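Q: What residues go here?
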């Protein structure tokens, strides 16, 4: 049992729901949901004690020794995108937002929609370590994708259900490919990405494997669409199986 920081004193502890966001060194970053409000607590794994917490900071990712999150204090729209030190909660940088939405895009980027003074619908790639904003355009112009996955090498694959998918360079944010495309190829429902491969499922053709850097078909009949693999084993929605080849 971890005692929450004093900032959570007014929360209804019985309704808390927690989820692991990430780990930096010996410190875990945990989201804490209390009704409609989501906050963050960091926990020292050696002592089992909470280090700091903020009931108004909704964590998006842990990167470069920082917790990146959207801070909401009173209105329904997040007021700022903040980078806070994992160990001490100090603010490294902060950006004003209007109706902000953000998604982690690998260890070196996050995609943010709703930065103040940006055009309506604009999506910006932000570097967590510095807060630097990179030129970026979502291929579909539909806003922030539903989820992004890092292939643990050099590519981040983002998708919104089975309606769209694209690959981008994990360091520069350059879009490498996008589906659907003009040739009629559809976007798969992306389940995972690992070392240059994108795993997914299409309604018509079942499981597929794409090349992470080109978006082209790599294996047309893989037999399964794992949502996690370490190169030795793969986890599907039905089983844990050894990776062949």
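A:
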């Amino acid at each position: 049992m971890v005692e929450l920081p004093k900032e959570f004193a007014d929360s209804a502890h019985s309704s808390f729901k927690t989820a692991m966001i990430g780990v930096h060194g010996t410190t875990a970053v945990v989201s804490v949901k209390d009704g409609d409000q989501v906050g963050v607590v960091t926990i020292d794994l050696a002592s089992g004690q909470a280090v700091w917490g903020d009931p108004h900071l909704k964590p998006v990712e842990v990167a470069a020794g920082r917790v990146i999150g959207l801070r909401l204090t009173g209105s329904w729209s997040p007021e700022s995108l903040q980078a806070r030190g994992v160990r001490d909660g100090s603010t490294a940088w902060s950006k004003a937002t209007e109706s902000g939405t953000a998604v982690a895009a690998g260890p070196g980027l996050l995609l943010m929609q709703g930065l103040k003074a940006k055009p309506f619908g604009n999506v910006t790639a932000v570097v967590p370590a510095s807060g630097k904003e990179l030129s970026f355009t979502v291929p579909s112009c539909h806003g922030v994708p539903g989820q992004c996955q890092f292939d643990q090498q050099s590519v981040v694959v983002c998708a919104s259900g089975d309606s769209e998918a694209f690959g981008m360079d994990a360091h520069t944010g350059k879009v490498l490919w996008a589906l659907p495309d003009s040739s009629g190829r559809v976007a798969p429902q992306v389940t995972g990405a690992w070392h240059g491969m994108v795993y997914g499922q299409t309604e018509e053709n079942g499981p597929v494997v794409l090349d992470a850097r080109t978006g082209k078909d790599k294996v047309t009949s893989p037999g399964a669409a794992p949502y996690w693999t370490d190169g030795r084993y793969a986890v599907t929605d039905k089983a844990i199986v050894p990776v062949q080849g």
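A: Context that may help when evaluating the design: The radius of gyration is 19 Å. The first strand starts at residue 16 and ends at 24.
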